[in-house]
Amino acid sequence: MMKGILFAFLAFAFFAWGDALVKAIGHGLDPFEVTFFAYILPLLLSPVFMTKGDRIGDLLRWNRPWLMTVRLIFVAASTPLSVMSFRSLPFAEAFAMIFLMPSLVTLLSILVLKEPVRWRRRLAIGAAFIGVLIVARPGFRELLPGHFAALGCALSSAVVVVTGRMIGHSEKRFTLIGTVFLSTALASGLLMIPGFEWPTRDQWILTIGFATTTFAAQALFTLAAAYAPADRVGAAQYSQILWALAIGAIFFDEWPDLLSLLGIVIVVGSGLFIFAREHARHPDPVPEPPEDEVSSESLPERPPEPGFPPPAQR
Questions:
Q1: For 20, 22, 199, 257, which has the most beta carbons within 10 A of its beta carbon?
Q2: Nearest 5°: CA angle at 109, between 103 and 110?
Q3: How buried is residue 186: exposed, middle or buried, by Cβ count under 10 Å (0-12/13-18/19+)?
Q4: What is the pLDDT of residue 309?
Q5: Neighbours of 288 (CB within 10 A)
């Protein structure tokens, strides 16, 4: 299990550094263009996630087409929204607002899945929203488009999680992972056309770096799911806020004030509590494979949902 937890922390470190590269690109490129180029490389390399019996055609062969369609619409929306938020908000502030996702998952579970939610989780949801209000402070400072983009990313990621739970084991692991890259690249490729500009050399370097970290993070995330239960893997995502605070301070000279730090602590604490309660209700144990190299057959058929864009997810 410890190996899986280590892989999970490494995966979310790669996700965080990829988001830092997005922030470094800044406003020089259209967010859809950044997303398109970042997901082409993972799409081309996605066959490495295939197991015995998988075919490339499984990317378009779905057992539950309506649910998959809804899932992929929100998958394709989450990364461009995260790009918009990271390039216009302080790094840690964007992460804090995106981490509203577990609370939104619980709300959608009540509305869509008709799941009962006890008072503890209801209080945690309320606390998470209060934490976001403390971070954003509407009425006391200007609300930027990045704030709405971060909330949109959180909502999109929550829909992906809930639809993934509804899909269950009816789709192949390769289908679930590969369609993330395919749908995001396809949608962003179409939407980038009106504002397309050929990237400069520096922008190419940063974009290729983003693509590389995206693929590496997903590969590490899949390995983590092979060695550790989903609750241990998913909880590691909150290490991203530590990376965000460190990267924002060191590379972007972003120092959150005390109120922002308080809001971040409330959001992260509420999310961790909700996450723990969710996985107490939906346990997903994964037996530890042998200590030798993980084979394709030892990987779980359906790992936890890919991170953010979840999700630059994400």
A1: 22
A2: 95
A3: middle
A4: 38
A5: 14
Q: Measure the CA–CA gap between 301 and 303, rounded to whole angstroms.
A: 7
How many other C-beta atoms lie within 10 A of the C-beta of residue 161?
23
Looking at residue 279, what is its pLDDT?
61
Q: Does the structure show a pLDDT above 70 at 193?
A: yes
Q: Which two tokens stand for residue 248?
A: 């924002």
pLDDT of 311 reads 43
Q: What are phi and psi of 138, to 5 degrees?
A: -65, 140
Q: Provide the token pair at 233.
A: 């893997």
Structure tokens at 160: 């992906």
Q: Model-level pTM?
A: 0.82
In three-state secondary structure terms, 141 is strand
How many helices (H) and strands (E) in the chain?
A: 12, 0
Nearest to 220 by CA among 161, 307, 298, 290: 307
Tokens, residue 70: 């809804």
Taking only the tens place, the pLDDT of each residue in 129-155 is: 898 889 888 766 778 899 999 999 999
- The residue whose two tokens read 């693929």 is 215
Q: Report the pLDDT value the prediction gives residue 231, as an integer from 0 to 100.
A: 62
CA distances from 12 to 17, 144, 234, 268 (A): 9, 26, 10, 15
Token readout for 134 is: 């403390």
